[in-house]
Amino acid sequence: MGTPDIRQAVRADLRAVVRSFGQETYFRDRLSKQEAGHGVLLVAWERDVAVGDVYVWLAPAEEPELRTHLPGVALLTHLEVVAGRRNQGIGTMLLWAAEDRLFATGHRQVALGVGLDNLDAQRLYRRRGFVEWPHGQVATTEVVYHADGRRERRPEVCRIMVRQLGPNRFT
Ligand SMILES: CC(C)(COP(=O)(O)OP(=O)(O)OC[C@H]1O[C@@H](n2cnc3c(N)ncnc32)[C@H](O)[C@@H]1OP(=O)(O)O)[C@@H](O)C(=O)NCCC(=O)NCCS
Predict the structure, then answer these.
(1) pLDDT in tens, 14-73
(2) CA–CA separation, 99 vs 105, rounded Å?
(3) What distance in Å separates the CA atoms of residue 1 and residue 165, rounded to the nearest whole number?
(4) Four-residue CA torsion sign, 16, 20, 22, 28
(5) Cβ(53)–Cβ(44) under 8 Å?
(6) Which residue range forms the structural domain that includes residue 135?
């Protein structure tokens, strides 16, 4: 099936991204945030089909604990690979792409929150060198965007995992 191409999304990608992932309100919002300089939406493509995405949150974190202990640290959010293409390395490639970009723009640390039950994702992050921070779990609010445009706010307790960024992917 070949290696997907990972690129920063542009407005014109919205239809294809929504075709793969739904969540139109979410992706519209992230494209607007990107245009305002608050983050970067990276999408993995196989020809014209979006197969994965990650949003790099560059604005101050919404959670006060993150602002206190990791001020200015970029967050990897909403990493997702379409169900039929998981376990083929695309999630790892999206992490690489985001980390490479952050390193190149002067970041030396990156963090993310992962749900306590999401063991698959936790394993992936640990293998990539992320370690849980020492400040405990954090109550976050997951915003779920429904197809009818409703936004639902759901509390979610997360582990915060942090990784130091080096000049190559193995440091
Ligand atoms: C978490 C998620 C993004 C991982 O994406 P992915 O593309 O499946 O990730 P990878 O393929 O890089 O790695 C996953 C597994 O596949 C294995 N793998 C990677 N490349 C592989 C290959 N070429 N062949 C076979 N297996 C491979 C990895 O070793 C890893 O194994 P593990 O189950 O022991 O951890 C995906 O499962 C997902 O979208 N989940 C739902 C959304 C979600 O929970 N996001 C995280 C929010 S914090």
Answers:
(1) 999 999 999 999 999 999 999 999 999 999 999 999 999 999 999 999 999 999 999 999
(2) 10
(3) 30
(4) negative
(5) yes
(6) 5-164
Say what percent of the chain tops pLDDT 90.
85
**CA 138, 132, 96 angle in degrees (round to 5)?**
110
Which pLDDT band, with edges at 50, 70 and 90, does 169 fall under?
low
Environment class of 55 (CB within 10 Å of its CB; exposed 0-12, middle 13-18, buried 19+): buried
In ligand 1, the atom with minimum distance to the C-alpha of 118 is 44
Is any atom of ligand 1 closer than 6 Å to the C-beta of 53?
A: no
CATH number at residue 74: 3.40.630.30
Closest CA to ligand 1's atom 29:
87
Question: Is there a domain that residue 171 lies in?
Answer: no
Q: What percent of the chain stands above pLDDT 70?
A: 97
Centre of ligand 1 to C-alpha 127, Å, is 11
Task: Establish if 104 belongs to a structural domain.
Answer: yes
- Using most ligand atoms within 8 A of CB, pick from 43, 87, 130, 132 the residue to mutate for ligand 1: 87
